Amino acid sequence: MRIDKFLKISRIIKRRTVAKEVADKGRVQINGTVAKSSSTVKVGDEITIVFGNKTLVVKVEKLQESTKKDEAKEMYSIVSETYQEDR
């Protein structure tokens, strides 16, 4: 599954166009490698996403083509969530 589609279906990022933009700006990594929006994600992969002052690291638990809101959280588990202090 493409990383932009995974981010949207898992509801980590609300819109696929935004997920595509974030990935194409180099702010998404899969297993430590910078990912493009078309990069493939598999179960067990670790995804790092940088949102401004927040860095979110999640592990892919399940891949689904579509989800209901309450099922979306089952697609990933949060490894870490860190915030950068403004200087």
Automatic annotation (TrEMBL):
CDD domains noted in UniProt: S4 (cd00165)
Keyword match Secreted: no
GO molecular function terms listed in the Swiss-Prot or TrEMBL record: ribosomal large subunit binding; rRNA binding; tRNA binding
Keyword tRNA-binding: yes
Domain RNA-binding S4: 1-64
One Pfam family named in its UniProt record: S4
GO terms (BP aspect): rescue of stalled ribosome
Keywords, alphabetical: Protein biosynthesis, RNA-binding, rRNA-binding, Stress response, tRNA-binding
Subunit structure and binding partners: Associates with stalled 50S ribosomal subunits. Binds to RqcH, 23S rRNA and the P-site tRNA. Does not require RqcH for association with 50S subunits.
Function of the molecule: Key component of the ribosome quality control system (RQC), a ribosome-associated complex that mediates the extraction of incompletely synthesized nascent chains from stalled ribosomes and their subsequent degradation. RqcH recruits Ala-charged tRNA, and with RqcP directs the elongation of stalled nascent chains on 50S ribosomal subunits, leading to non-templated C-terminal alanine extensions (Ala tail). The Ala tail promotes nascent chain degradation. RqcP is associated with the translocation-like movement of the peptidyl-tRNA from the A-site into the P-site.
Protein family (similarity comment): Belongs to the RqcP family.
Record protein name field: RQC P-site tRNA stabilizing factor
This protein's encoding gene: rqcP
